[in-house]
Amino acid sequence: MTRFASPAHDERVTSRVGRWLGIAFAVCFLTGLLSHGIQHPPSWFTWPSSPVWLYRVTQGLHVISGIAAIPLLLAKLWSVYPKLFERPLVRSALHALERGSILVLSGAAFFELITGLFNVAQNYLWGFYFPTAHYAVAWIAIGSILVHVAVKLPVIRRALAPPGVDADRRRFLRTTWLATGVAVVATAGATVPLLRRVSVLAWRSTVDLPVNRTAAAAAIEVPADWHLEVVDGEDVHRFTLDQLNALPQATEELPIACVEGWSASAVWGGVRVAELLRQCGIAPGVDVRVSSLEKGGLYSTSTLPGTHTGDRRTLLALRVADQPLTPDHGYPCRVIAPTRPGVLQTKWVTRLEVL
Predict the structure, then answer these.
(1) % of the chain at pLDDT higher than 90
(2) Whole-number Cα distances in Å, 67 to 120, 141, 196
(3) Is residue 202 part of a domain?
(4) Domain span at 141
(5) What is the pTM of this model?
(6) Order of strands across the sheet that contains 301-304
(7) CA triplet 177, 179, 182: central angle to 5 degrees?
């Protein structure tokens, strides 16, 4: 049919776009698994405290690969959509499996990419809990990709073999690569500082230290008699803010790296968590539950693993940029640890409990 005569509707184009789309999905899936494991670790999972930029890179890759997948997915669907009009609809059991995998793959992919975009913009237009749904559908998406590749493997091998594509099809592919590059550069400044001046669509392009959740939004009220409790079984040690400031102080340059993909570095000052534990007669390297003044929030508590409590760079921060913490940055004190998601860098800390 003449309406389907475009050079883009060709298995050689589809296979080449699909190869890069598969790479983008694989990177997005694997880095997403890491992020999920850090936030909801199973018993066997461990996450190192070095290098300090590790989570910044993995989560940045997660978001950037997801953004790159959008133009790639649209180009791939454009190259194959005439197949939707083929008759008969189902020719064999294998053909039915192929069509079913495409339907599931397309639905799961669009769900992941669209909800992911809304998440980085912190616009939640749905009633479900995003992390749980995003994680579950990711498994559906990657499973349908594997089924689709297995079914189409003979076609893929044939399409990627020489002599390649002609000039008309190369133009379509170049346009696809250009659109993908523009999408990445226009948004990657949220993660890559060198691109912040040109990333016009970056959701966090400011050089200042952004805040996702303000003290007002968390309904934080710091009592006049605030003190920090360090609990180890029956032993309870209490520190006022003045007493924390009187302990040996340290500074570290560490990033806040958010699950939305943005990150920003700052110089933090405060008490090393390892030193604070020693002051209480506790050997560093133990798991610690961190509790916030926030009541009822999803991240009002977090667990700081022993790999981080034993790392001298992990701070109970009292200052940022040589100034006392503001309420939005966690006053009177907050946790700052290397390679941790921002949601686990608990603010408004009131209690540390050895587990």
Answers:
(1) 68
(2) 11, 16, 16
(3) no
(4) 2-195
(5) 0.90
(6) 235-239, 228-232, 349-354, 288-292, 301-304
(7) 105
